[in-house]
Amino acid sequence: MAEARTMFIVMRKDLVKFREDERVKTYLSDVDGMHKVVLETKNEASLFKVADSLKQQDIPFYLWVEQPENTPTCLATIPVMRSDLGDALKKCSLLR
């Protein structure tokens, strides 16, 4: 079987926006139990709909905006239990 091409995202731990939140502290303290899911959405409008859904569920997130283009490209939620998401990400699918 051929080796799959993989995209890696590298983030500085000291710059995590919500690092003082207890949910983030718990997540970061369990290196072996960390889980990440990369989802896709169709376009900018659908990304903003996801953001609105997260706001309605009171789930903190960070929206990345590329500069100098001022283009929203992705968002990341605070580490949460899947059950807390409700329907906020129901229209997203796994990035393939």
Helix tally equals 2
Question: Which sheet architecture does the biggest sheet show?
Answer: 2 strands, antiparallel
Strand order of the largest sheet: 1-4
The gyration radius over C-alpha positions equals 15 Å
Q: What is the H-and-E element order?
A: HEHEEE
Protein name: peptidyl-tRNA hydrolase
InterPro entries: Pep_tRNA_hydro_II_dom_sf, PTH2, PTRHD1
Keywords: Hydrolase
Catalytic activity: an N-acyl-L-alpha-aminoacyl-tRNA + H2O = an N-acyl-L-amino acid + a tRNA + H(+)
Structural notes for this entry:
The protein is globular, with a radius of gyration of 15 Å. It is built from two helices and four strands; from the N terminus they run H-E-H-E-E-E. The longest helix is centred in the middle third of the chain and has 13 residues, at 44-56. It is α+β, with helices and mostly antiparallel strands. The model has no long low-confidence stretch (mean pLDDT 85). Helices cover 22% and strands 18% of the residues.
Task: Tell me briefly what this model is.
GO terms for molecular function: peptidyl-tRNA hydrolase activity. The chain is an alpha+beta fold and 96 residues long.
Helix and strand arrangement:
Blueprint (H helix, E strand, L loop, with lengths): L21 H8 L9 E2 L3 H13 L4 E6 L4 E7 L15 E2 L2
Antiparallel strand pairs: 1-4, 2-3
Features:
96 residues, alpha+beta, two-stranded antiparallel sheet
